[in-house]
Predict the 3D structure of the following.
Amino acid sequence: MKSDNSVIISPSLLSSDFTRLGQELTDLEEAGLTWVHWDIMDGAFVPNITFGPPVVAACRKKSRLFFDVHLMIKDPDRYLEDFARAGADLLCVHAEACTHLERTVAEIARLGVKPAVSLNPHTPLNVLEYILPQLDMVLIMSVNPGFGGQKFIPFSMDKIRDLKEMIRKKNARTLIQVDGGVTPENTYELVSQGADVLVSGSAFFGYPPYRERLKVFEKAALGQA
Ligand code: DX5
Ligand code: ZN
């Protein structure tokens, strides 16, 4: 169990109003959010297609939020530099999409961006065993990536707990992020198992005003829902 149940909420822009992306970012910042989650999809690693580097770069000029960029794309090495230039603060690649994961992670760090790795629900934690100390964050996917609004896969809870233990044993400072089907209802258990950063799309943007919604998640994390 985590002794400190504080949490970072990273709202997923996938559920935001795309016609007002710049305004959404301003609203998030004014509401007290510090992170924002970009779901980059290529129509190959996942069925959907979303944003590319020019969209991220344009929004970077409007926002001081921490850009948490989740790359759901095949062979992400091809685009690391573009997303780094676009202003990503953190780049998260999928282990399943990288043939030489250690090299990819090292390249992200070389570009001056925080490296993170995401695991699909079926992917075991042990692929990260030796590179864990190089990672600023691990993203546990709690749905199969590609769409917002899916149901949380229950075994993800065990995976978070096991990852927390692995991080402790390695004496690493890696954050644990959880993405998919996160709601105020499962927030307390997620944070108690070790989650540090929660991504929320539909359960966040569907419930304005954002300042109030952030408070709902923060209180839920403390068990005060
Ligand atoms: C799914 C994306 C998620 C998604 C989460 O492929 O990686 O970030 O936006 O959406 P919700 O919170 O609605 O499950
Ligand atoms: Zn995501």
In short: The chain is about 35% helix and 20% strand.
